[in-house]
Design a protein that fits this description.
Length: 685
């Protein structure tokens, strides 16, 4: 093992201090199981103050909610253990289901409410009359551990979350800038789509990281709205830049002179916009670029040919790109001002996309909840049928582990790993419980006895490479100390308690493998289908969302999809799928829905086109050749119909969107040709 770094040692010392403080206060107050507080302090601790505070607050709320549920359920059903087991299992499963739909720290509230009910309720079923006192003691111990961890990590050399978040934001912005420069090169760039999709993954990770921002100790917490707005602009870069990249490639296929003669200078100036120092005002340069792009863009008209339509689409997307560059630069300046305490009031109230707009997989959440319910009920059945006095620990641990790893594609390997390192911790737990703690007669000696083991484990917790092994090892030790009465522990009670915990872990792993385990390829297909279904609803008009919200959700899906495509291997159907293309098509559909009522006679052709698009995406991945031919014809009819209309902003936006869709859906099709409206007239009549 390599030597600990300064930050790792600092985290370990602070976490150990918080744990020992919580144990000391628990003993002084007279709480029955002070090691619950110790375990909680370690679970809540994080290297940065912001995540520690957010986790502590939300976990405290979840603990109180779970305790309230137990106090209500146990006395009511104490004479019917089967019904009580069912009620607690359903409560755990229901809380887990709703927590998985919220991909922010708020999910801790419901997840904790679920398995805290198991932690308190199952060991207390034999004492229903004392359930309030037991629940109150558990809440006090757990909240005390959270409070101590939050206090120590906030006040003692707090590690701000701001530098890490700002570095990740600037890194994502640099990646977006590099992509723009590559896309606008005269010869294009051959970088793979996988590298492009990674930017979407970075944006998704940033979005989830920034949910801890309001709890940070730095001035950056006041810039939350600006940070979220900047992330949304970065998300919008993905479809816009990929569209520009594709349109330039299409124009080059038609003849390089088309691009170089008319657009090269403008493309160079857009690239130069990225190179300006971050404090340089860009509004005037941006307005000049807009004017020059408008001068180069062809006007709408019935004689507009395919190269002209591609140029029109390119101009529209370049307008969007320039606006995004200006907005991201301005937002970054506001964030710097906020860090120095000079954030404009208007920035504090910027509208944003709610976290609920991100991708939600209700089916997988339901399956995870079902696995938790079945695992808990199986352990309860064995416990009730055998009358095992220590059996309460089995459903309790099954609930905890099913909740801990429910967000993974295949939780079973993670649960098995947790089980393995929990077993490894048993000798150390036995040494503390049966030999060391009985010889301890004061708090100072307890600190000295715990320090060697827990300080080393704290360093391992601070390292991402060893966290997954150190946490179950520490959890096993603290769990044994918390669940067995340290004043009357013996080898029999310890062995029974550990066997029950191992049984619960094994049941969680087995039932999860049977009911819940899926591969990366399976999850990737679900993500693709979720996007197709949303596009089908968008085409039918069932669900028309704002482009900003749609872009955030689809970019989130692209970010979730990227690592799973890498793990899924060479599955032909997955390799053929192009989530970036679906994102661009959906953005164009959303833009068309927003302007279609302003297009006069063209609206009828668009209605038919949207209906065909809805049917196409509803049937994917299956494709019908005749339907595809009819869809291409409908696209061309729509282009001709819109070209016949009044030349205005709505018409240009519609033509740009239709051109983008035709290019994305039918890149190999013959070029569009303006002609009479014979087919269109037949269709609308």
């Amino acid at each position: 093992m390599t030597l600990a770094s300064r930050s790792e040692m600092l985290f370990s010392i602070k976490s150990f201090a918080a744990a020992m403080l919580s144990v000391y206060l628990s003993m002084r107050i007279g709480l029955p199981r002070p090691f619950w507080a110790m375990m909680t302090a370690y679970i809540v601790s994080a290297p940065f103050a912001g995540p520690t505070r957010s986790k502590g607050i939300y976990r405290a709320g979840g603990t109180v909610l779970g305790a309230i549920a137990v106090v209500f359920l146990v006395p009511q059903l104490s004479n019917a253990p089967e019904l009580l087991s069912l009620a607690l299992a359903l409560w755990i499963g229901g809380c887990l289901y709703f927590s998985l739909l919220d991909r922010t720290p708020r999910s801790y509230v419901l997840m904790l409410a679920g398995y805290t009910a198991g932690l308190i309720g199952f060991p207390a079923v034999g004492e229903p009359g004392a359930i309030f006192d037991i629940a109150l003691a558990r809440v006090e111990e757990i909240v005390l551990g959270m409070a101590c961890a939050t206090l120590v990590h906030t006040l003692v050399l707090p590690q701000s979350f701001a530098p890490v978040l700002l570095a990740r934001l600037d890194g994502a912005a640099r990646d977006a800038g590099a992509w723009i420069r590559d896309a606008l090169k005269p010869g294009g760039d051959a970088r793979s789509a996988g590298e492009r999709r990674r930017l979407a993954g970075d944006i998704t990770e940033l979005r989830l990281m920034s949910t801890h921002l309001p709890f940070d100790t730095s001035q950056l917490r006041w810039t939350e709205k600006a940070v979220n707005a900047l992330q949304e602009r970065l998300a919008q870069f993905v479809p816009i830049v990929s569209s520009i990249e594709d349109r330039l490639a299409a124009l080059r296929e038609l003849g390089a002179d088309v691009v170089s003669a008319r657009w090269r200078t403008v493309l160079e100036d857009v690239t130069a916009l990225l190179e300006t120092p971050k404090d340089t005002p860009l509004a005037v340069r941006g307005a000049a670029l807009h004017t020059r792009i408008d001068a180069l863009a062809p006007q709408g008209g019935r004689e507009l040919d395919w190269p002209g339509l591609l140029a029109l689409n390119l101009a529209a997307r370049l307008h969007m790109l320039v606006d995004l560059v200006l907005e991201t630069r301005l937002l970054r300046q506001h964030i710097d001002a906020g860090v120095h305490g000079h954030l404009p009031d208007s920035v504090r109230h910027l509208p944003g996309v709610a976290p609920s707009a991100l991708h939600q997989d209700r089916g997988m959440a339901l399956l995870s909840a079902l696995a938790a319910v079945v695992a808990v009920l199986a352990c309860c059945a064995f416990w009730i049928l055998t009358g095992w006095p220590a059996g309460a620990a089995a459903p309790m641990m099954a609930a905890v582990l099913c909740c801990f790893f429910a967000g993974q594609d295949d939780p079973a390997p993670f649960i098995q790993g947790f089980l393995t390192y929990t077993v490894y911790s048993i000798p150390v737990a036995a040494l503390y419980l049966l030999a060391i703690l009985p010889a301890v007669h004061g708090f100072e000696s307890l600190v000295l006895a715990c320090a060697p083991t827990f300080l080393v484990l704290g360093v391992l917790l601070a390292r991402p490479s060893t966290f997954g092994r150190a946490m179950p090892f520490l959890f096993g030790i603290c769990g044994a100390l918390a669940m067995v009465d340290t004043h009357s522990a013996d080898i029999v009670s310890f062995t029974n308690g550990m066997l029950a915990q191992i049984m619960g872990l094994a049941a969680a792993a087995l039932i999860t493998r049977v009911l819940r385990s899926v591969g990366a390829g399976w999850t990737a297909r679900r993500l693709l289908r979720a996007g197709w279904q949303e596009l089908a609803r968008l085409g039918s008009g069932e669900r028309v969302t704002a482009p900003r919200e749609f872009s955030a959700r689809m970019v989130d899906r692209v970010g979730l999809l990227t690592p799973r495509l890498a793990m899924a291997g060479a599955h032909a159907d997955l390799q053929a799928a192009d989530a970036l293309r679906d994102l661009r098509v959906g953005l164009n559909m959303s833009l068309l829905q927003s302007v279609r009522t302003q297009l006069g006679r063209g609206e009828a052709a668009l209605a038919s086109l949207m209906s065909r698009l809805s049917r196409r995406f509803a049937r994917l991945p299956a494709l019908d050749r005749d339907e595809e031919a009819a869809l291409l014809a409908a696209l061309d009819n729509s282009l001709r119909a819109v070209c016949q209309g009044t030349v205005d902003t709505a018409q240009r936006e519609a033509l740009a969107a239709l051109t983008g869709m035709r290019r994305d859906l039918f890149p190999q099709a013959p070029a569009y040709e303006p002609s009479t409206l014979t087919a269109y007239d037949k269709e609308i009549r």
